Amino acid sequence: MTDAKVVVVTGASGGVGRGIALACAQAGWTVWVAARRAEQGEAVAHEVDEAGGRGRFVACDVIDPDSVAAMMRTIRINSGRLDGLVHNSTSGLSSQATPFDDITLATIEDQVAVSVRGLYLLARAALIPLAETKGSLVVTTSEAGFEGKKLLAAYAMVKASQRGMVQGLAREWGPHGVRVNAIAPLALTPAMDRAFVSEPAMETRVRSRIPLGRVGDPVNDIGPAVRHLLSDDARYITGMTVMVDGGSCQIT
Amino acid sequence: MSALLLGRSGAATNELAAALDAVVGEPPPDVTISGTAWNWASEVEVWAQGVAAGAPAAHIALCTWAPAAPPVSLADQDPRDWAEAVEVELAIWSRGIGAAAQRCTPGGSVVAVVERPSPLDAFGRVATLAVAEGLVGFARSAALAHGPRNVRVNVVATALWTAPQDLLGSAPPLSGFPGTVGHEVAGAVRILWSDDACGISGTVIRADLGRSW
Question: What is this structure's pTM?
Answer without folding.
Answer: 0.96
